[in-house]
Design brief:
Blueprint: E1 9-10, H1 11-17, H2 23-31, E2 36-37, E3 40-41, E4 47-48, E5 53-56, E6 59-67, E7 72-77, E8 107-109, E9 117-123, H3 126-133, E10 141-148, H4 153-161, E11 163-165, E12 168-170, E13 174-177, E14 184-191, H5 198-204, E15 209-218, E16 221-222, E17 232-234, H6 237-246, E18 254-259, E19 265-266
Parallel strand pairs: 9-15
Antiparallel strand pairs: 1-4, 2-3, 2-5, 5-6, 6-18, 7-9, 7-17, 8-9, 10-14, 10-15, 11-12, 13-14, 15-16, 18-19
Helix pairs in contact: 1-2
């Protein structure tokens, strides 16, 4: 696993998070030369890192590193919702149903178009979201697709080997038949990217139309069977570590806080919020089986 990152933090932001004043008020104190970092007067825009000392109001604080508390949800997205914070057309968004968080915001890990249902991961951990979406992480996504018609062996082989779409070559890394009768047949497919409407366009390249599309897995996260559409389920801290470890991140991200004289730590506010029990579905442990590559 990668070693914990120690990202520098803006001085006024860290002091405000530790409860030493408002950010605007602290900016004025810094501009007036009343805050010193490592014995020198600080200037606006100064950043600090672990081990630095901050002198303020006749006291000295040390910058320390500690675990950052984040939340991650599995949301079962219904049709008709868009994966954006607001919509010019006034359509409902996935964020409308989520619990509130303090000093942070929900970040969607990947998107689902309005007509696609199923698993959507949302987190307050921006590092996790970026890593899971980045192509270099090779995080696979599994979808259940209902197709009008039945794919031939030749079509399935072409979709595995790769076809040329208007934005470059694409392929399914795996295709498994999942039953069906009459004109509708189900398949489970796995892709390694998340381009716009990629699953639908791959089937369309073979003259086949997707009538229903549902994401059932994203990396190590599976859609819980008991989670109804429009409900969310918060994963446990242990399963959160599984998600981070699966893409090579350290189990617990760290952030910066201020340690006061005497050793007490002025922590940044808890990023967790009380869950809304009316919308929360029973949590389910994330399977630890190896992903298909």
């Amino acid at each position: 696993m990668k070693p914990p990152k120690k990202t520098p933090e803006r001085l006024q932001k860290l002091m405000a998070a530790a409860g030493l004043g408002s950010r605007r008020g602290l900016e004025k104190l810094i501009a007036d030369g009343k805050v010193r970092v490592n014995g020198e007067a600080a200037e606006l825009g100064r950043t600090v890192n672990e081990g630095d000392t901050i002198a303020f109001d006749e006291k000295t604080w040390r910058v320390v590193s500690e675990p950052v508390l984040h939340r991650t949800l599995i949301y079962n997205k219904p049709e008709g919702e868009v994966t954006s914070r607001s919509d010019p057309e006034g359509r409902p968004t996935v964020f409308d149903r989520l619990p509130k968080v303090k000093n942070g915001r929900w970040v969607a890990i990947g998107r689902l178009d309005m007509n696609t249902t199923g698993l959507l991961l949302l987190t307050t951990d921006g590092e996790l979201a970026h890593a899971m979406m980045h192509p270099s992480s090779n995080v696979d996504r599994e979808y259940a697709c209902r197709i009008r018609g039945k794919a031939t062996d030749e079509q399935i082989q072409r979709l595995k080997e790769g076809v040329e779409l208007n934005d470059g070559p694409a392929s399914f890394s795996d295709i498994q038949e999942a039953g069906g009768t009459g004109e509708n047949h189900w398949y489970h497919v796995t892709i390694m990217e998340g381009r716009n409407r990629e699953v639908r366009r791959l089937w369309e390249s073979q003259g086949l139309t997707v009538s229903r599309l549902k994401r059932v897995r994203y990396g190590a996260a599976f859609l819980p069977k008991r989670l109804r559409m429009g409900q969310w389920s918060e994963i446990s801290p242990k399963d959160y570590e599984v998600l981070r470890g699966d893409i090579g991140l350290e189990a617990a991200p760290t952030g910066l806080s201020l340690q006061a004289p005497g050793g007490s730590v002025r922590r940044q506010p808890d990023r967790r919020a009380k869950p809304d029990s009316r919308r929360k579905a029973p949590a389910r442990r994330l399977p630890r089986n190896q992903r298909k590559r």
